[in-house]
Amino acid sequence: MFALARQTALRRAFSSGLGQQHTRHYASSRRLGRTLALVGAGLGFTAFLVEHPTIHADSNLPQKPESRNSSSDSTSLRSLVRAYVVYSMCSFPTLVDAAPKLLKVLMGIPVVRNITETFVRVTFFDQFVGGDTAQGTLPLLSSFRAANKGVLFSYSIEVDENEATSSNTSSKKKAQPVHKRCVDEMIRSIDVAADFEDSIVGQHARSGRRTWVAIKLTALLPDAQSLIALSSHILATRPQHEPSIPFPGCPRPTDLNVLNTTADSKFLSEKDIASLRELYSDLRRISLRAQERGVKLLIDAEYSWYQPAIDAMQLALMREFNKIPSQGDKSGPIVQPLVYGTFQAYLRRTPLHLAQSYRDAQANNYALGVKLVRGAYHPHEVSAHEAARVHGKQDSLSISPDALPPVWSSKNETDSCYNECVKMVVGWVKDDVRSNSASASSSTSKLSVGRWFYRKDDAKSSGLPNIGVLFGSHNGASVKLILSELLGNGLATSLGVENGEGEAVLKLEDEVIERVTLAQLYGMCDELTDYIVRRTSSNAPMVLNGRFSVCRAVPYGSLTETMPYLSRRAIENKSVLGNGHAAEERRRAGREIWAKVFG
Ligand SMILES: Cc1cc2nc3c(=O)[nH]c(=O)nc-3n(C[C@H](O)[C@H](O)[C@H](O)COP(=O)(O)OP(=O)(O)OC[C@H]3O[C@@H](n4cnc5c(N)ncnc54)[C@H](O)[C@@H]3O)c2cc1C
User: Fold this and answer.
1) Ligand 1 centroid – CA 415 distance (Å)
2) Which residue in 382, 386, 371, 385 sits closest to 413, CA to CA?
3) Whole-angstrom Cα distance, residue 276 to residue 117?
4) How confident is the model at residue 449 (pLDDT cuts 50, 70, 90)?
5) Which of 145, 180, 199, 324 has the most Cβ atoms closer than 10 angstroms to its Cβ?
6) One of this protein's Pfam families, by short name (predicted)?
């Protein structure tokens, strides 16, 4: 009954005059008024929750870790109602766009400020953020693992120096720049992830380690503009005779040379060079810790204007930290690949970029780490390219020299590109698994023939993977394609039993699980994650619950600081929540609430 009452209350609240009252008081434009009405409804709904303690377990703030959202309670009535409210609000693009301004207005009004904070915590924060601190997420990690799911851990505070030094910021936090706190927090999260894995699989286990850490480079330096400057420098200094690959092209090992010379660059100031050098040294520090502790690192892809710089750093890190140890060398990492780069299928360059990355890894004897996603910034990429074309580069962040935008123009093209990349990477995994078993069964050193390459067997006899892929997607068709490619390539075998939906359960051996992982964002598409768990059988989790910038947490816990980040991320990630994902999630929560009450 509660659920029905709540749904009815929600519907009423959304259509009632509650929001209109807010409109009259605080909004001058009709557009803002409409969005305020929606938030007002949400606040009214929160008030409703507060009046019903049986369904408002989060009211004792700050929360105890045990009370956080977890996979085991993701189907509780409270979580379902929260998901319903959050995804209802995410289904309104106007509301998402207006959220930062709206929050600023609401946070400036005494009393309303407290209600707003409570509302955001019990809704968006709990839905998308795993915890206030790394330690605080441990119960969540345990509950995911119990459900055979790993976690992609991501601690990044948004770098906004203005806010970081505003009067709201405590003096302790002011003592250290935001990006440095972020680096420290990253290292702390590696330790928390490693301690957790050690407690599950053992300190020296080389396989089955399923708490990984994601890093976002723009959060790790004082001004992300320095990355754009480096990208511009890289584009201007790339040899012109190289085969043309659509912007942002492919990285070259010499891309970072400018950081080690005193040569002048018209794009980079001394300050840029200093902070880029420091960024690279911090990335090495993070990677070293990850190497020592056996925690995989995934570097997020961002807007195309940052990518040449991000690609260059990612290439340098992979070449150093993913090096394949020679026989008998015990000094290398215990997990491989250690560093993964992200490949966005919506970029026209991606199939060529991926193929070149693979060739480079083969030629230089390091393991290639691939995170394959569709890409989160499509609308911004299109508008930035259009603005540069119409109004000139000074009015746009785009630095592409190409006539066509860097991203595909239709969803179908992105989907085909994603599929093509899936097939390419699964083929490489097959080659690697075969070649690895061949070298394990042969005691002599000889040349083995892979589909794309020749390599010496002694480099492979470490038994560690030469390729690893994480497929990040909420698209059911993509997930099914990945599973069928694994089956078709002999990387999975059918157990001949059904998963309850008429589909065969697939058995994946350890050597495949060490190379192939699937992931969804935390708080989104639980149904798909559960489907993968039901369709696969393996000794370690095949699927991770990830965190991407939708939920870039402020790890030091202040909700006041979290809110602007959450709202800005919501805008940045409209393409994650778009394409009907938010509406589908809302409908799913609605169905489950209904089933719980009347089922
Ligand atoms: C674990 C994980 C990690 C992630 N990390 C990153 C990251 O580092 N960097 C990043 O950019 N994104 C990242 N994402 C987000 C990802 O790129 C997608 O935005 C998101 O997953 C939605 O795509 P989909 O495959 O899940 O679903 P779908 O709904 O099938 O695809 C939506 C996507 O299709 C593309 N698209 C939509 N409309 C068009 C159009 N008109 N023309 C061309 N293409 C279109 C866009 O890429 C859009 O995001 C991550 C996602 C996950 C699950």
Assistant:
1) 10
2) 382
3) 36
4) very low
5) 324
6) Pro_dh
Q: Between β-strands 149-153 and 536-537, what pairing exists: parallel, antiparallel or unpaired?
A: unpaired
DSSP 53: G
CA of 544 relative to ligand 1 center, distance in Å: 16
pLDDT at 223: 93
- Is the pLDDT confidence value at 207 over 70? yes
Give the model confidence (pLDDT) of 305-324 as tens digits.
999 999 999 999 999 999 99
Give the nearest ligand 1 atom to 376 CA. 19
Distance CA 210, CA 538 (A): 13
Nearest ligand 1 atom to alpha carbon 373: 17
The chain-wide mean pLDDT, for the chain, equals 77
Rg, the chain, Cα only: 24
List pLDDT tens digits, range 6-53: 333 333 332 333 233 333 333 333 344 344 444 444 443 443 333 333
Q: How far is the CA of 298 from the centre of ligand 1 (A)?
A: 16
| Distance of CA 525 from the midpoint of ligand 1 (Å) | 13
Looking at per-residue pLDDT, the higher value among 252 and 55 belongs to 252
Testing ligand 1's pocket by substitution, the residue of 548, 549, 571, 574 carrying the most ligand atoms inside 8 A of its CB is: 548
Which ligand 1 atom is the nearest neighbour of the CA of 579? 29
> Candidates 374, 409, 415, 526: which one to mutate for ligand 1, based on the most atoms within 8 Å of Cβ?
374
Is 48 within 8 Å of 67 (Cβ atoms)? no
Cβ 410 under 6 angstroms from ligand 1 = yes
Q: Residue of the nearest CA to atom 19 in ligand 1?
A: 376
User: What number is the average pLDDT over the span 166-190?
Assistant: 71
What are the two backbone dihedrals, phi and then psi, of residue 134, each rounded to the nearest 5 degrees? -60, -50
**If we measure between CA atoms, which residue out of 570, 482, 491, 565 comes closest to residue 519?**
482
Q: What is the mean pLDDT of residues 291-308?
A: 95
Site to substitute for ligand 1 among 575, 581, 584, 585, most atoms within 8 A of C-beta: 575
Can you tell me which atom of ligand 1 is nearest the CA of 573? 19
Which two structure tokens, joined as six digits, stand for 214?
């994601």
Q: Which among 90, 80, 123, 124 is positioned nearest to 589, based on CA atoms?
A: 80
Please tell me the predicted confidence (pLDDT) of residue 560: 56
Reduce the secondary structure of 441-465 to three states and give it as a string. Answer: HCCCCCEEECCCCEEEHHHHCCCCC
Distance 303 CA to ligand 1 centre (A): 12
Cis previous bond, 401, omega within 30: no
